[in-house]
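In keeping with the milestone schedule agreed at the kick-off meeting, the structural modelling team has produced records for the first pair of proteins. Each record is given below as a sequence line and a structure-token line. The laboratory manager (R.T.) confirmed that both were archived under the project's standard naming scheme.
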Amino acid sequence: MLLHPENNWFIVCLCRKDDPDRAPKFKKVLRLYKANGIMGNLDDGPKQMPMDTKVVQKVILSLLPKQNFDLILTHSPSGEYNRHLRHEEIGRAVMELWKNKKINTKELWAFAFEDGNKKYYPQVIKGASIHQELPQAIWKEKYLIITEVYGFEKAGFEAQTTPKNEAFWSFENSIAAQEWLEKEKIQP
């Protein structure tokens, strides 16, 4: 997003709408990105329980503007950093909504990171469709959003894992996304 500030970004955060700490920070980030956005209130705490895909889909549809998109970025349904359950459910729900024509986009990207099942900090997946190294100034801006706007400690996980290299799985149609899910053995 920082690489393309000219785009008309809309950011959907499915969790923490009522969080008195996180919600105002999200709004500040929207202003920094010159983006529009909205928050939902799904649980994403450390002891989260699995959530029915239909519930996640319903929340996505209630928050997402009803329009066609050029690009949707989402979490990876195969996990990314630290196998965050809610992120995986969101990634699967977005792909399922696209397959069922409930959301429309020309292209969908899903984050492509892995951490060796928590053996090391997340790193890009070498076989991902898209790889990009962030210019130092862009990475620094991203890092400052994590440490200064969101207030994560510089020695903490969030700051230490702010990637200088990014990777994404890229899909030009929902059929390709579904084939990838099957190949990766990811259950809808």
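The second protein of the pair:
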Amino acid sequence: MALDFEELDYAETPLGAISLRRRADPRLGGEVVHEIKLGDEFLMSSLFTVGETQLATRGLDALKGSELDVVVGGLGLGYTAAAVLENTRVRSLGVIEIMEPVIDWHLRGLVPLGKRLTSDARCTLVQADFFAWAASEGRQTVGMPRSLFHAVLLDIDHSPSHWLAPGNRAFYSVAGLRSLRDKLQPDGIFGLWSNDPPEAAFTGLLDEVFRSSEAHVVSFPNRYTGDASSCTIYLAHKGG
């Protein structure tokens, strides 16, 4: 059976052609699904968001106190950012997204969570390269009021060894992680979503740079296969 399908937007970006699609899937009783594609590659689907929300909840649950300042790297469909804003302890959220069309989809309300993010005064959407910001010297920020953050939560690349762009590779190194660590409060948390199982090489890097780290395997039902799928959430603690 053919799927009801609509391409909501299409744009060329430095990383390739990106598109936002909406379809009604009869395999799921006609449920409406939003998807983002970069070229021929699927970046995100509204069907699979457990990993994104778990990145936010696990990262913030590891922090004490209130008036938390948070950075999310990668906007996508907005599920990580929305989960951050559900936490009443969050004072500010800066979402760094390199692709201007993705931010525009939220501003125009083309994605389900767009209005929720753009109507929350705590949330700032910043069009910039997260990896350039992470590598910048000192405590420079891009369009955000804070200089140090309690949590930086990253959901851009598929995994620490599978990048959307070759230039992202430099971040996954001792030098790259140390630069990011310097943007955290003394008790801050770095969190990373990965679509792959835990990688010992990457946890070794985290333990070299941060006081401690852990890798959490998050399982969730795959409604297409009837089986469970999984992703990995890495958490690294700067330590006081």
